[in-house]
Amino acid sequence: MRTGIIGTGRIGTVLARILVAAGHQVVLAGARGPQTLGPLVAELGPAASAAHPAEAAAQAELLVLMVPFERVRGLLPPHAVQDKVLVDATNAFGGPGAPADLGGRGSSDLVAEWYPAAQVVKSLNTMHFETLAVAGTAPGERLAHFTAGDDAKSKEIVAGIITDLGFAPVDTGPLHSGGILQQPGGPLFNRPLTEAQALAWISH
């Protein structure tokens, strides 16, 4: 599966590296254009390529948004994500370390509203990039990555990628309620849990 990563900051770059290491193909898109991603693409090898965001969306089978939340609206043409799994890995902040006030709505609810033709899954946003880089191949119990969404098949696809990366997928439920658990201010944000700990928390 070719995964499009929209956003090539620290977390997007880490995701690209571990996806390629796990045998996946990636197409990268950053704010400054594909020409600036040459060194990263060269590092990652033939499994990686670079494109503009709309081109990455067209080429990929699954997309991961790893840009600042305020850049999500209007970033991609709606037709480019038609019937595709769109992983919302963004975090909505209202200030340094403070969650944005969205009036009780989940940030992923808004992403789904902006891209109604896509199957939005909230995932890959709760873990610090330094942990993400190494934890999937570390010995011991697997750490959890969470999925929230309204389409079961889309969550299964994302769960499969999480498993490939060496983590444990844990379903937090529908996009609204499950996504709120994962976003800044939620109880699962930036809280590394093992699979057993995460399942115990979800079931309590």
TrEMBL record:
Cytoplasm among keywords: no
Name listed for the protein in its UniProt record: NADP oxidoreductase
Keywords (A to Z) from UniProt: Oxidoreductase
UniProt entry tagged with the keyword Aminoacyl-tRNA synthetase: no
Pfam families cross-referenced by the UniProt entry: F420_oxidored (PF03807)
InterPro entries: NAD(P)-bd_dom_sf (IPR036291), P5C_Rdtase_cat_N (IPR028939), STEAP_metalloreductase (IPR051267)
Organism: Streptomyces virginiae
Pyrroline-5-carboxylate reductase catalytic N-terminal domain mapped to chain residues: 4-91
